[in-house]
Amino acid sequence: MIHFRVSVFCASSTKVDKIYFEAARKLGLVLAEHDIAANYGGGEVGLMGTLADTMMKAGGSIRGIIPQFMVDQGWSHPDVKDMLIVKDMHERKKRLTENIDAFITLPGGVGTLEELLEMMTHKQLGQVLVPIIIINTNHFFDPFLEMLEKMVAEQFMRDIHQDIWQVIEDPEDVLTAIRHSPAWDGTAIKYAPA
Q: Is there a domain that residue 194 lies in?
């Protein structure tokens, strides 16, 4: 029985530097070794594919969630047995975020950022209460994190909103980051207006 489940947002690109694939592999090993189940976008290639392949080889539990149009493109991972095919991107996101104990983001493109930002927004509004972990491999997210700092500095967000996310560089630190994430509850909505 699964007692802890995370959703992982990450890239499908096959052309990124090998350092990012290594981060996905390390994350997959950490999750599998600690019996943490993962939801992911269902893809066969890129960091998605590496995460899934690593977890399956290590005996981990991974669930793919992918819209039908991506399946039609041949993008779904054929070896992931727990594959949920949904009608569109909205349903995919909904399913990726149901009954989740933490969100983890590896480097990725606009789709990855969009997923991360939506969860951060929901947490700011007290609708998501679980840890959000950003794995800043190779300082990939530095410009994004600087933008968040600017939002706080210029009072578009409050100081407390910096507790919404945690940043690590090494995927091996993900469990520590989850355990030590600041508590967050539904009353956080009172802080939403900066």
A: no
